[in-house]
Amino acid sequence: MTDLDLSTLRGGLIVSCQAYPGEPMRHPETMTQIAESAVRGGAVAVRAQGIADVRLIHDRVALPQIGLWKDGDGGVFITPTLDHALAVARAGAEIVAIDGTRRERPDGLGLAETVRRLREGTGVLVMADVGSVADGLAAADAGADLVGTTLCGYTDERPRTDGPDLEVLAELVARLEVPVVAEGRVHTPAHASSCIDAGAFAVVVGTAITHPATITGWFAQAVAR
């Protein structure tokens, strides 16, 4: 059971330490070292993917962790079932991130039942990754402790904006009592600042901090003539 005080995350930066399959950095030790570096940079929490990564970061990094388990690469794949979520919690995550959209889950459980059984079984907090305002409202009704804009632009409900989806973020902030976390395409410090201005409880940044291949591509494109 977690005793995490969510207020410690308010107004802070959460660093997502993940590598894609097949990449050189796809290793728990590497992701843990990145998480340790994020601590030095001032992160208030980390977000990590995969049981081995979650477990090692839990053991070595003195920050709260949002853990998840990606299974597949389309549809509902962010901690898609209750069993995935229970495994992430047992690996040491204080917060478990799950797909919080209104789409059907692979195990057939509704979101509310998933949240209830996960919390009863482990005592962790639950972050719902959503793709729209309607998703966010439904996730809060289902009992999620936090709602994140993670999937905005990655389902068929919203266009993929150039930067974070501030429209969805601001509306969710206005309509929900639970914390709303900005996540998705936060690529610059200005983007992160705009999320806080829009009312975000906290901001997750991944690619722009922890994905060298993408960052290198940005600079390579910028200097190409």
From TrEMBL:
Keywords associated with the record: Carbohydrate metabolism, Isomerase
A cellular component annotation (GO) from this entry: cytosol
Residue ranges crossing the lipid bilayer per the database entry: none
Gene Ontology biological process: carbohydrate metabolic process; N-acetylmannosamine catabolic process; N-acetylneuraminate catabolic process
Pathway(s) served: Amino-sugar metabolism; N-acetylneuraminate degradation; D-fructose 6-phosphate from N-acetylneuraminate: step 3/5
Gene Ontology terms for molecular function: N-acylglucosamine-6-phosphate 2-epimerase activity
InterPro entries: Aldolase_TIM, NanE, RibuloseP-bd_barrel
EC code(s) of this entry: 5.1.3.9
CDD domains: NanE
Highest rank taxon of the organism: Bacteria
Catalysis: reaction(s): an N-acyl-D-glucosamine 6-phosphate = an N-acyl-D-mannosamine 6-phosphate
Any Pfam family hit: NanE
Family according to the record: Belongs to the NanE family.
Protein name per its UniProtKB record: Putative N-acetylmannosamine-6-phosphate 2-epimerase
Organism expressing this protein natively: Agromyces hippuratus
